[in-house]
């Protein structure tokens, strides 16, 4: 019994892996249907519709009810098959019959013929419907995929004041459509592959042929082909599998819900990866400068765009350095604080039992807790938690003498500043690094801060994203790229694609020199 | 479109141009105005500084010309063609020594200054060690990464120097620069000698030019790099003299940092700009150290056949110990002067010897060809 | 393997951080010193003096914050005796729970008694210049009597006397008979250059402090040789630019006229460099406005302005002549900056006369110093006159 059980499990595994089980379709209809049912375990949503094509030629239609367009199956497939049975010539062999069905009868856009049970099963499970005909080892696969999807919404994680309001959805086809609507270039490529041993999800590599450096696409393909996992629930799985360094606190790929962002990235010569079932597209390569770029920079006039960017750089510095600076100044270098302010800080800190580091740590952690709590709760309650928590805890902590009022200002400013960074994943790493800076400041004051700053720089210059140095175009410097770095030059001036991506075609627009 | 991936170990001439000032500018300039002012009258020291700078620039040009005329060859390989193999090994070791001593000296000096301006009780050893560990971390990464670090930090150094000079304007008195042209020739020569010491660092060219893609542009780039150093040094010197006058400059241990202390930035959040300035300057010092450690590792590698990281972990304690040997700031200063002389004499000497020999050889070859 | 090594290195380096925090002193544990006074107690031996150092500590809770006003006294003066500043300074930590912290030191008051002793002043200053942590902008004042009394002057609207003194010195440009405040950085320059110099005096008037005239210090021994009164101080200000502006009262046709000086420029030129007959020409250019006029003439009248300018010029000449006479004849110290000018522009000649400038042959006293002053009155204010001429 035990042995039997073991064998069955092994068998099942083998069949699921689909390596030894590439049984071809046979000529016996009932056997075929049985094979199919064994293969996927005869689930409830598998619908098998047996019918007669006349002259006693038996046939069957199979589909998964939730994934297929039932209306299309009934109207365009089954009705046609039944209505036209009188016309069928009895002399036809089943092989010819099935060809005829494909060419003459079925009025569904995509029809495929296959003899592999393996392919048939996977296609069936992705929503296609199957037609078997007695006496032939071929089956027809009809593109009848249709399932419930979310409608196109405004991207929640990246809302802009000015810019398109559409965001990606979970449906790959819709997402591709959204990108195509931005770029009608015939060179826009969507290279499809499958990912996940078990999930067999569709994954699309999107780029513009003739702009992108071909080596970059090769590199992306090489990395994607190395993926070996059961399933990718979200594009984050893909990102983490193919990123250059998993030890780095910095993300090496951008993710976005915005089709316009993807479109502009592929037009610059980048590569985007879309995964079925995920509304987040990946963009690679990115550099540290991308953390401060938002699509809105380009939608507003250049002066405003530049201003916003400078604000973000300042915000990033505040996020990382301010609490650490507070600790360093209050615990080590009191001489650097202007006298009046120093006395006032000293007065407010009198009675605070903790050193500045602990004080900053308490408030910093509280802030992170509040943020996490706000993110987990339903949105309406989440906002309340933020306000109530922030105000009440801050106020209470000050009056209880646990922290000084200046600390509350520092923490609040830091929190606000961290929201200015458009790339959420980078903002998180900055917040994380902030604690490193605080620790260094607590141990070695300003000296510690600058050493950690140097270390982060060392890390950044050694980090790569898809083989492109993370610190470019600062260093290795591409001075021509600097007009879209901290500054955002006027649109007519930005007539060249970023050199750091080594694009095939460097000039964008018609302003060729 | 041949090469998409950035060839990791190749660098461009522009990076050499930045690396040169990044290595040269470090701790030397912090005290240089004092040493010059002590020997000269008024602001006459600029002549010494300029002369020394131009001389070093010429030698730098020769070094890079020499190395660039053997593209793709390591120092050992081209120098053993010119002089014999044993001599070239000796040269190589001298240059390694120079870099090692320089890095040891720098990690010591940084601790001394940090103790003066940032800390009271933190032990020297800890300040040096933490700094050295960061350097080790940098060197254990890619070599191209180090050059990128130069590119990232050097503009910050230039910027902070300009900010300092700009804000010093309110304290600048033209009168302090007078009298002019009153220094004796002997003092000028002595000052030139002293100034030369602050230009140590161009020996990296012997080794790194091998890695450069566009070798032809290197001599020009390195001259530009050195000119940047001269410009920055002259600016610092003049601002120092203009603000403090000769007597005070000559009596401040680190006139450049004191300059930052003297000025008050209007509406500034920081009152003591000196601490802040020094903290920024640590990046310049870091560049010097990281590059010298890396060049010594790079030059030593052919002898030991060890992996870069292994060699680094062997050298780092050595550097640390050498740095901790001098007792007291006087001995540190002595070590500094020694390293300056040793560095300038050895690297200039090696350059001159190799350059002359290679010129003579080439000349002969041409003669042969003519015949 | 690679990873393990990295982890190892990280762990080793992190032990340093665990041992850190040598210098950590939180801000509330610092005893902020904002003012220091130095008095002489007695002379023990030749060149060895016992001095009393009074430090003014700020009590931050006394000052209060923006949110709540302070209560109680905002400062505390602690005195200690000793033979060197550094040692005396160390004693403070014995009596005060907070660590003395000099980085916010604003004002240093030195009593005249200290200044009179040769070399004592420069020795005292050494501590304040040498410490890297001290600012170069600490301002220096001289007290006629006890220096520590000055640190007790608290007018109604201020909390901390030293801060009050510091603010007081910001206002010097309203007054001609005071000089620009001198800070420690400049003192270093003056002591090193061995030029004679002046230091400003502060006087206690009731609960207030008054910033006034100057004392004259000899450049070589750094010893006080005398003092200038208010007129002489303003004369000095015109000569060497110690004054930035202020109000000058002159008489025009027997009616008092106050000229507000907006700009002073002086130019010193040495016209003759013979040892016994050094000729110095100082031209002073003054821009001013009419601030107050008691007379009845029309101030818009060109002639009147010319008269006013002429009498201002006369006044400036009078003031400067007094000063020159005093420093040349009586004090015999070159605080006018002639020696600096000689050094800068007549270096060779200066090398010759250096030794005999203020001492020995005393070339300074015999120098012929001429003053040219030129006054320009730009604006006359918004009113012509407030009363009409009585016909």
UniProtKB/TrEMBL annotation, chain B:
<feature type="transmembrane region" description="Helical">
    <location>
        <begin position="89"/>
        <end position="111"/>
    </location>
</feature>
<keyword id="KW-0472">Membrane</keyword>
<feature type="transmembrane region" description="Helical">
    <location>
        <begin position="310"/>
        <end position="326"/>
    </location>
</feature>
<feature type="transmembrane region" description="Helical">
    <location>
        <begin position="123"/>
        <end position="140"/>
    </location>
</feature>
<feature type="transmembrane region" description="Helical">
    <location>
        <begin position="192"/>
        <end position="211"/>
    </location>
</feature>
<protein>
    <submittedName>
        <fullName>Spore germination protein</fullName>
    </submittedName>
</protein>
<dbReference type="InterPro" id="IPR004761">
    <property type="entry name" value="Spore_GerAB"/>
</dbReference>
<dbReference type="GO" id="GO:0016020">
    <property type="term" value="C:membrane"/>
</dbReference>
<comment type="similarity">
    <text>Belongs to the amino acid-polyamine-organocation (APC) superfamily. Spore germination protein (SGP) (TC 2.A.3.9) family.</text>
</comment>
<feature type="transmembrane region" description="Helical">
    <location>
        <begin position="276"/>
        <end position="298"/>
    </location>
</feature>
<keyword id="KW-0309">Germination</keyword>
<feature type="transmembrane region" description="Helical">
    <location>
        <begin position="16"/>
        <end position="33"/>
    </location>
</feature>
<keyword id="KW-0812">Transmembrane</keyword>
<feature type="transmembrane region" description="Helical">
    <location>
        <begin position="152"/>
        <end position="172"/>
    </location>
</feature>
<feature type="transmembrane region" description="Helical">
    <location>
        <begin position="223"/>
        <end position="244"/>
    </location>
</feature>
<dbReference type="GO" id="GO:0009847">
    <property type="term" value="P:spore germination"/>
</dbReference>
<feature type="transmembrane region" description="Helical">
    <location>
        <begin position="45"/>
        <end position="68"/>
    </location>
</feature>
<dbReference type="Pfam" id="PF03845">
    <property type="entry name" value="Spore_permease"/>
</dbReference>
<feature type="transmembrane region" description="Helical">
    <location>
        <begin position="338"/>
        <end position="357"/>
    </location>
</feature>
<keyword id="KW-1133">Transmembrane helix</keyword>
<keyword id="KW-0813">Transport</keyword>
TrEMBL record, chain C:
<feature type="domain" description="Spore germination protein N-terminal">
    <location>
        <begin position="23"/>
        <end position="203"/>
    </location>
</feature>
<keyword id="KW-0472">Membrane</keyword>
<dbReference type="InterPro" id="IPR038501">
    <property type="entry name" value="Spore_GerAC_C_sf"/>
</dbReference>
<protein>
    <submittedName>
        <fullName>Ger(X)C family spore germination protein</fullName>
    </submittedName>
</protein>
<dbReference type="GO" id="GO:0009847">
    <property type="term" value="P:spore germination"/>
</dbReference>
<dbReference type="InterPro" id="IPR008844">
    <property type="entry name" value="Spore_GerAC-like"/>
</dbReference>
<dbReference type="GO" id="GO:0016020">
    <property type="term" value="C:membrane"/>
</dbReference>
<feature type="domain" description="Spore germination GerAC-like C-terminal">
    <location>
        <begin position="220"/>
        <end position="381"/>
    </location>
</feature>
<keyword id="KW-0309">Germination</keyword>
<keyword id="KW-0732">Signal</keyword>
<keyword id="KW-0564">Palmitate</keyword>
<dbReference type="Pfam" id="PF25198">
    <property type="entry name" value="Spore_GerAC_N"/>
</dbReference>
<comment type="similarity">
    <text>Belongs to the GerABKC lipoprotein family.</text>
</comment>
<dbReference type="InterPro" id="IPR046953">
    <property type="entry name" value="Spore_GerAC-like_C"/>
</dbReference>
<dbReference type="Pfam" id="PF05504">
    <property type="entry name" value="Spore_GerAC"/>
</dbReference>
<keyword id="KW-0449">Lipoprotein</keyword>
<dbReference type="InterPro" id="IPR057336">
    <property type="entry name" value="GerAC_N"/>
</dbReference>
């Amino acid at each position: 019994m035990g042995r039997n059980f073991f064998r069955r499990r092994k068998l099942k595994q083998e069949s699921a892996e689909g390596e030894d089980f590439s049984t071809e379709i046979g000529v016996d209809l009932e056997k075929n249907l049985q094979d199919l049912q064994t293969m996927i375990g005869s689930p409830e949503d598998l619908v098998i519709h047996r019918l007669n094509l006349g002259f006693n030629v038996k046939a069957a239609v199979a589909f998964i009810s939730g994934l297929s367009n039932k209306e299309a199956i009934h109207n365009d497939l089954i009705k046609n098959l039944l209505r036209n049975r009188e016309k069928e010539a009895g002399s036809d062999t089943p092989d010819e019959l099935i060809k005829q069905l494909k060419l003459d009868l079925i009025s569904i856009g995509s029809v495929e013929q296959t003899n592999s049970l393996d392919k048939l099963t996977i296609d069936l499970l992705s929503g296609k419907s199957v037609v078997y005909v007695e006496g032939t080892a071929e089956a027809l696969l009809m593109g009848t995929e249709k399932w419930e999807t979310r409608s196109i919404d405004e991207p929640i994680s990246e809302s802009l004041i000015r810019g398109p309001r559409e965001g990606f959805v979970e449906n790959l086809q819709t997402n591709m459509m959204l990108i195509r609507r931005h770029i009608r270039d015939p060179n826009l490529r969507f290279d499809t592959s499958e990912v996940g041993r078990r999930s067999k999800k569709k994954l699309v590599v999107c780029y513009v042929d003739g702009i992108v450096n071909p080596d970059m696409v090769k590199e992306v393909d090489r990395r994607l082909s190395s993926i070996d996992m059961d399933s990718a629930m979200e594009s984050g799985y893909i990102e983490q599998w193919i990123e250059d360094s998993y030890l780095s606190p910095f993300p090496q790929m951008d993710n976005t819900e915005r089709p316009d962002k993807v479109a502009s990235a592929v037009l610059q010569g980048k590569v985007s990866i879309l995964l079925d079932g995920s509304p987040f597209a990946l963009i690679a390569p990115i550099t540290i400068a991308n953390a401060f770029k938002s699509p809105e920079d380009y939608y507003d006039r250049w002066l405003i765009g530049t201003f916003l960017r400078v604000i973000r750089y300042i915000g990033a510095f505040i996020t990382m350095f301010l609490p650490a600076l507070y600790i360093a100044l209050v615990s080590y270098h009191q001489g650097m604080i202007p006298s009046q302010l120093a006395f006032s800080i000293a007065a407010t800190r009198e009675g605070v039992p903790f050193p500045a580091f602990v004080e900053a740590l308490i408030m910093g952690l509280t802030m992170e807790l509040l943020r996490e709590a706000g993110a987990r709760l339903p949105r309406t309650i989440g906002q309340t938690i933020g306000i109530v928590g922030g105000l009440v805890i801050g106020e209470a902590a000050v009056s209880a003498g646990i922290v000084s009022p200046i600390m509350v200002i520092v923490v609040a400013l830091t929190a606000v500043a961290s929201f200015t960074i458009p790339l959420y994943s980078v903002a998180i790493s900055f917040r994380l690094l902030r604690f490193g800076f605080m620790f260094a400041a607590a141990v070695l004051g300003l000296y510690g801060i600058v050493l950690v700053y140097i270390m982060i720089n060392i890390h950044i210059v050694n980090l790569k994203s898809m083989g492109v140095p993370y610190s470019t175009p600062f260093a290795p410097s591409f001075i021509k790229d600097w007009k879209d770095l901290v500054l955002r030059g006027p649109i007519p001036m930005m007539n060249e694609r970023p050199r750091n991506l080594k694009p095939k075609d460097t000039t964008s627009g018609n302003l060729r020199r | 479109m041949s090469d998409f991936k950035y060839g990791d170990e190749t660098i461009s001439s522009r990076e050499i141009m930045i690396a040169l000032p990044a290595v040269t500018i470090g701790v030397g300039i912090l005290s240089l105005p004092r040493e010059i002012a002590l020997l000269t009258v008024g602001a006459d020291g600029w002549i010494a500084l300029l002369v020394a700078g131009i001389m070093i620039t010429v030698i730098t040009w020769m070094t890079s010309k020499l190395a660039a005329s053997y593209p793709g060859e390591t120092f050992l390989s081209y120098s053993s063609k010119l002089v014999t193999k044993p001599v070239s090994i000796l040269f190589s070791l001298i240059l390694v020594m120079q870099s090692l001593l320089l890095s040891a000296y720098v990690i010591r000096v940084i601790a001394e200054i940090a103790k003066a301006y940032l800390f009271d009780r933190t032990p020297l050893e800890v300040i040096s060690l933490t700094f050295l560990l960061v350097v080790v971390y940098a060197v254990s990464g890619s070599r191209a990464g180090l050059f990128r670090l130069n590119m990232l930090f050097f503009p910050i150094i230039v910027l902070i120097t300009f900010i300092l000079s700009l804000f010093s304007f309110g304290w600048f008195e033209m009168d302090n620069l007078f009298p002019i042209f009153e220094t004796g020739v002997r003092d000028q020569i002595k000052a030139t000698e002293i100034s030369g010491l602050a230009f140590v660092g161009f020996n990296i060219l012997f080794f790194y030019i091998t890695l450069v893609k566009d070798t032809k542009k290197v001599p020009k780039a390195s001259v530009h790099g050195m000119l940047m150093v001269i410009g920055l040094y002259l600016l610092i010197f003049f601002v120092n003299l203009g603000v403090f006058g000769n007597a005070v400059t000559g009596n401040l241990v680190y006139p450049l940092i004191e300059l930052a202390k003297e000025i008050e930035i209007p509406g500034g959040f920081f009152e003591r700009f000196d601490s802040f300035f020094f903290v920024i300057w640590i990046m310049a010092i870091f560049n010097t150290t990281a590059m010298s450690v890396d060049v010594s590792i790079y030059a030593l590698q052919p002898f030991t056949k060890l992996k870069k990281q292994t060699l680094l972990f062997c050298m780092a304690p050595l550097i640390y110990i050498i740095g901790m040997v001098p007792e007291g700031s006087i001995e540190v200063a002595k070590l500094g002067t020694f390293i300056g002389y040793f560095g300038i004499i050895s690297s200039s000497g090696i350059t001159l010897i190799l350059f002359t020999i290679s010129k003579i050889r080439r000349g002969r070859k041409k003669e042969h060809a003519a015949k | 393997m690679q990873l393990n090594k990295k982890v190892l290195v990280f762990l080793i380096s992190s032990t340093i951080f665990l041992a850190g925090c040598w210098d950590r002193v939180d801000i509330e544990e610092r005893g902020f010193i904002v003012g220091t006074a130095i008095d002489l107690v007695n002379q023990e031996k030749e060149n060895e003096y016992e001095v009393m150092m009074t430090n003014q500590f700020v009590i931050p809770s006394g000052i209060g914050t923006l949110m709540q006003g302070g209560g109680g006294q905002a400062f505390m003066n602690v005195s200690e005796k000793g033979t060197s500043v550094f040692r005396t300074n160390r004693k403070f930590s014995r009596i005060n729970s907070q660590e003395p912290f000099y980085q916010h030191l604003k004002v240093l008051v030195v009593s005249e008694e200290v200044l009179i002793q040769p070399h004592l002043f420069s020795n005292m200053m050494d501590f304040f210049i040498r410490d890297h942590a001290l600012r170069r902008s600490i301002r220096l004042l001289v007290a006629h009597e006890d220096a520590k009394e000055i640190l007790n002057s608290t007018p109604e609207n201020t909390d901390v006397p030293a801060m009050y003194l510091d603010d007081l010195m910001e206002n010097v440009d309203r007054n001609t008979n005071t000089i620009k405040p001198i800070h420690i950085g400049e003192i270093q320059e003056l002591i090193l250059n061995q030029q004679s110099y002046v230091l400003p005096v502060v006087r206690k008037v009731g609960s207030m402090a008054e910033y006034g005239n100057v004392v004259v210090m000899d450049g070589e021994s750094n010893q006080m040789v005398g003092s200038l009164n208010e007129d002489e101080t303003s004369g000095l200000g015109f000569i060497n630019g110690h004054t930035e502006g202020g109000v000058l009262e002159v008489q025009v046709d027997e009616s008092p006229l106050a000229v507000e000086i907006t700009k002073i420029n002086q130019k010193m030129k040495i016209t003759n460099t013979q040892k016994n007959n050094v000729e110095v020409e100082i031209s002073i250019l003054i821009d001013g406005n009419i601030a107050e006029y008691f007379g009845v003439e029309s101030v818009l009248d060109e002639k009147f302005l010319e008269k006013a300018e002429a009498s201002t010029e006369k006044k400036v000449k009078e003031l400067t002549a007094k000063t020159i006479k005093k420093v040349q004849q009586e004090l015999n110290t070159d605080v006018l900056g002639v020696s600096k000018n000689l050094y800068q522009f007549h270096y060779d000649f200066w090398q010759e006369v250096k030794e005999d400038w203020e001492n020995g042959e005393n070339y300074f006293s015999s120098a012929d110093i001429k003053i040219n002053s030129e006054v320009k009155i730009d604006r006359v204010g918004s009113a012509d006159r407030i009363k009409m001429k009585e016909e």
